[in-house]
Amino acid sequence: MNNDYSFNIKRKRPEDLFENVSDYFNEETLTTYAESKSIMRTQKKITIRALELLELKNKHPLILDAGCGPGFAAAFLNELGYKTVALDIISEFLKYYDIEYLNPILANMCYPPFKPDSFDSIISISALQWIIRDVNSESERLILTNLFVSFYQILKPESNMIVQFYPKSTVIMDYIAEIVNNKTNFKGNFIIDNPNNPKKRKIFLLLKK
Ligand SMILES: C[S@@+](CC[C@H](N)C(=O)[O-])C[C@H]1O[C@@H](n2cnc3c(N)ncnc32)[C@H](O)[C@@H]1O
Q1: How many domains does one find in the chain?
Q2: Where are any strands of DSSP class E within 8-132?
Q3: What are the Cα distances from residue 147, in Å, to 21, 42, 74, 109, 201?
Q4: 124: CA distance to ligand 1 center in Å?
Q5: pLDDT tens for each residue of 21-53
Q6: Is residue 163 part of a domain?
Q7: d(Cα 157, Cα 208) in Å, to the nearest integer?
Q8: Whole domain around residue 47: which residue ranges?
Q9: Atom of ligand 1 nearest to the CA of 110
Q10: Residue 104 lies in a domain
Q11: CATH code, domain with 85
């Protein structure tokens, strides 16, 4: 892995301040997030880049958007004509925009309620940092392992998945790589856009079953 970039995190992040994601996304924060046009634009850009990296072969793929929030990615994927299953752990997010028409699922993405070989792809945008914060936590290790093992199972053979997230250090990235390598048969790597510009940096984990 390329470690030529630095993480200079000055302030504590929401995922460090709140144990439960639903405590952070209370009514006010959730509304501000869901109604922000600039966040919508940013999440759409990230989704476009994720799709570029995924290189989907199937023209009519069934995609899982894991941690969909108000559906910025899911609604866009749907607009592109991809059948999309949107899933989030916070029910209030699932009432925004057109996401209701996608029949979103209220569930924990670490325990996705789907049969094996269900999806042509999985996309997860800006959610994984809520699942792994402390590499010394045994419970987080088990939960993260379950997430990747489950994602491996519910993906169809030869399919790709992508996760974009905001790790706070390369230690977290190495830790994730170790779990993926040791607990699943995924092949893949991190792809880092703008590695030397912390404001513009985007980190993706692209995995192939
Ligand atoms: C920053 S928001 C991103 C939402 C959306 N992907 C987007 O691009 O706008 C993080 C989302 O991850 C969801 N999330 C965090 N942990 C989750 C979990 N264990 N299962 C499902 N969703 C989760 C949160 O509820 C929240 O909607």
Answers
A1: 1
A2: 62-66, 83-88, 105-106, 119-125
A3: 16, 25, 20, 7, 24
A4: 8
A5: 999 999 899 999 999 999 999 999 999 999 999
A6: yes
A7: 9
A8: 40-51+59-204
A9: 19
A10: yes
A11: 3.40.50.150
Q: Is the pTM of this model over 0.85?
A: yes
Distance 130 CA to ligand 1 centre (A): 8
CA of 127 to the centre of ligand 1 (A): 4
List, for residues 116-144, the tens digit of each pLDDT value.
999 999 999 999 999 999 999 999 999 99
Query: Does residue 88 form part of some domain?
Result: yes
Q: Which atom of ligand 1 is nearest to the CA of 69?
A: 27
Taking residue 65's Cβ as centre, other Cβ atoms within 10 Å add up to 31
- What type of residue is 8? N
**What is the C-alpha to C-alpha distance for residues 159 and 121, in angstroms, rounded to an integer?**
6
Distant-in-sequence, close-in-space partners of 58: CB < 8 Å, separation ≥ 6: 120
CA–CA–CA angle 118, 123, 125 (5° rounding): 150
The secondary structure of residue 106, as a DSSP letter, is E
Residue type, position 51, single letter: L
Greatest Cα pair distance in the chain: 44
Q: pLDDT (tens digit, 9 = 90+) per residue, 133-181?
A: 999 999 999 999 999 999 999 999 999 999 999 998 899 999 999 999 9
